[in-house]
Amino acid sequence: MTETTTLQKETQIPTNLRLLLILEEVAKRGVAVKPSDLIETLGLAKPTVHRLLQTAEAEGFLQRDLDGRTYGPGPRLRQLSVNTVSSEHLRTARLAILRGIADEIGETCNLAIPDREGMIYLDRVETKWPLRIQLPIGSRVPFHCTASGKMYLSTLRQRTLNGYLSARKLQQLTIKTLTDPNALRKEISNISDRKYSTDEEEFMQGMAAVAVPVLEGNERLVATLSVHAPTQRHDLNSLKQFLPVLQDGAKQLSNLLSP
């Protein structure tokens, strides 16, 4: 695209819409974005893109990735996405789906979304059993030792996954927590192949869990749907029998996101 063509296209985009289009493009791609990608896709001039990226970064809507050159969602944009999917009409339909799953399985069902430091519980429907595991809405749990977190890790690009695995020592929460990066990498590869994830007392002793992905129309993971239970009622093999129920529920939740 020539400089003249770029300037012509830029003048067609209202000034107050340009930053919104950049935020939309970053959120849509789901990976760290280079300014040159935005210039090419949106047809904005290089100085305009860099100025808007600096503004969005200063206000917390975007943040630079580890390489210092690319940009991803910042804390305010991530919170905006949480508030959007938590809007009342969406949440009413979402909770109806979760209640149906919880009633059929008889155990607590959770909907979690990825954040930079772990998975955040967005919604949950509790089991009616007196013995239950308390993880309230808003709880943040690790990626490496939870069913929902490992499900998310299995969708990352290899370079991003390697960066996560090498960034810090993986915390051992139980004797079954995978803390060896190679062992966890193998587990994540298996999850990617089978399209569901498990937690066999890796996060919490005496708890088992199974998770499946909730996908957008472009097949990108936006959330995970999981069920967990005390091993006194369900071991991992017992919970896996409910995979068809979870997968059907995940499809229903994905349909809520369709335009």
Could you walk me through the main structural features you see in this protein, from its secondary elements to its overall organization?
The protein is an alpha+beta fold. It folds into 2 domains: 3-74, Winged helix-like DNA-binding domain superfamily/Winged helix DNA-binding domain (Arc Repressor Mutant, subunit A); 86-256, 2-Layer Sandwich (Beta-Lactamase), CATH 3.30.450.40. Helices cover 48% and strands 17% of the residues. The chain has 11 helices and 8 strands. It has helices at 3-11, 15-29, 35-42, 46-58, 75-85, 88-105, 147-153, 158-167, 181-194, 236-240, 243-256, and strands at 62-64, 71-73, 108-114, 119-125, 140-141, 197-200, 207-215, 221-230. Strand 3 (108-114) and strand 4 (119-125) form a beta hairpin. Helix 2 (15-29) packs across helix 4 (46-58), helix 3 packs across helix 4 (46-58) and helix 6 (88-105) runs antiparallel to helix 11 (243-256). The radius of gyration is 20 Å and the shape is globular. Mean pLDDT is 85; it is low at 4-8.
Overall strand count: 8
Q: What is the CATH class designation of the largest domain?
A: Alpha Beta
Q: What's the helix-strand series?
A: HHHHEEHHEEEHHHEEEHH
Which architecture of the largest domain per CATH?
A: 2-Layer Sandwich
Cα separation of the termini: 31 Å
Q: Assess the beta-strand content as a share of residues.
A: 15-25%
Q: What name is given to the CATH topology of the largest domain?
A: Beta-Lactamase
Mean pLDDT: 85
* Helix count, DSSP H or I runs of 4 or more residues: 11
Q: Shape from CA axes?
A: globular
Cα Rg = 20 Å
Oligomer: single chain
The CATH H-level superfamily of the largest domain is: GAF domain
Summing up helix and strand content along with how strands pair, one would put the structural category as alpha+beta
Q: How many domains, in number, for the residues? A: 2
Poorly predicted runs: 4-8
Could you estimate the helical fraction of the residues in percent? 40-55%
Q: Report the major sheet.
A: 6 strands, antiparallel
